[in-house]
Automatic annotation (TrEMBL):
Keywords: Membrane, Transmembrane, Transmembrane helix. The chain holds residues 305 to 576 of 576 of the full protein. Residues 22-272 form the EAL domain. This is EAL domain-containing protein. The keyword Transmembrane applies. It comes from the Bacteria.
Length: 272
């Protein structure tokens, strides 16, 4: 076991350091939240048939004072082991919705999608705070949760959903097909959107089985009354195939990279 441990430490020094520094990293994350230093990018999401913007997904960004820019995968899982995830989610919901209230009207019903963890939805006070943040005139809010997250707190997540839904907040199952799925959970969640994982999307033109899975997912989503989105669209041919297969919404580098909020605002303005 010793050699493989050594390899892990040298191959991914930064993760190794982060693991040693959890308490410090969490304190620094709380500090970034309290001093409004935590940032986010917005990635456009379009209606595949019309090509028009439907809104954006908000993706957290942290420019750490010592470590430099950190990817969400480097600190979100750590925050999820602590109460810090709730602070972060609420911060992003409040800041994200405040930003969206400044979006120009495009004639479309726009929404912002925010990623949440099971811990967030399992905490009734946080669910209340999210609902409070939605009061007033603002674009729609959609919460994205992965199947794996749902499985960590299936009962409590299922309890939170009707309350969120009664306030007009949508639920999207993120990375659909890639997690610990269960059709029982899917039935219980009754999501508003299924978001097909990009591992099925990125090479679908070269893979018969990926195309079969995507087609079946689109059908399943529609039969359940959900809208179906695809993430990870990286070229025009994939977008065309998905549109013809009946997929409703799309996201990916070919459509638009995650960008600063001001830049997304310009995109909306250009659409008019
Ligand atoms: P996700 O929610 O599935 O987000 C999509 C990720 O795929 C983003 O990475 C995005 O930059 C990337 N992506 C988008 N289009 C393409 C594409 O065409 N090709 C490829 N290869 N990648 C694409 P990012 O921003 O690094 O986020 C990674 C994950 O971190 C997210 O996956 C989400 O699970 C988590 N995350 C991000 N922001 C938040 C947040 O605010 N809260 C929570 N709880 N989790 C977050
Ligand atoms: Mg997401
Ligand atoms: Mg995803
Ligand atoms: Mg993902």
């Amino acid at each position: 076991a010793a050699p493989s441990q050594a390899t892990t430490a040298t191959a991914d020094t930064r993760t190794f350091d982060a693991a040693l520094a959890h308490p410090r990293l969490l304190a620094e994350l709380s500090e970034a939240i309290a001093s409004h230093q935590l940032a986010y990018a917005l990635q456009p999401k379009i209606d595949l048939r019309s090509g028009r913007l439907l809104g954006a997904e908000l993706l957290v960004r942290w420019d750490h004072p010592r470590l430099g820019p950190m990817a969400p995968d480097e600190f979100v899982p750590i925050a999820e082991q602590a109460r810090t995830i709730g602070e972060m989610t609420l911060y992003l919901v409040r800041h994200g919705l405040a930003h969206c209230r400044g979006w120009p009207a495009t004639g479309d019903r726009l929404h912002v999608s925010i990623n949440v963890s099971a811990n967030d939805l399992a905490d009734p006070r946080l669910v209340d705070a999210i609902i409070d943040a939605c009061e007033g005139d603002s674009p729609g809010l959609m919460l994205e949760i992965t199947e794996t997250e749902v499985m960590r707190e299936p009962e409590r997540v299922a309890e939170a959903l009707p309350r969120l839904r009664s306030h007009g907040i949508g639920i999207s199952v993120d990375d659909f097909g890639a997690g610990h799925s269960s059709l029982v959970n899917l039935r219980r969640l009754a999501p508003d959107e299924l978001k097909i994982d990009r591992s099925f999307v990125h090479a679908l033109l070269a893979s018969h089985s990926d195309r079969a899975i995507v087609r079946a997912t689109i059908h399943l989503g529609h039969e359940l009354g959900a809208s179906v989105a695809a993430e990870g669209i990286e070229d025009e041919a994939t977008r065309t195939w998905l549109t013809q297969a009946g997929c409703d919404a799309g996201q990916g580098f070919w459509i638009g990279r995650p960008m600063p909020p001001a830049e997304f605002m310009e995109l909306l303005r250009a659409q008019g």
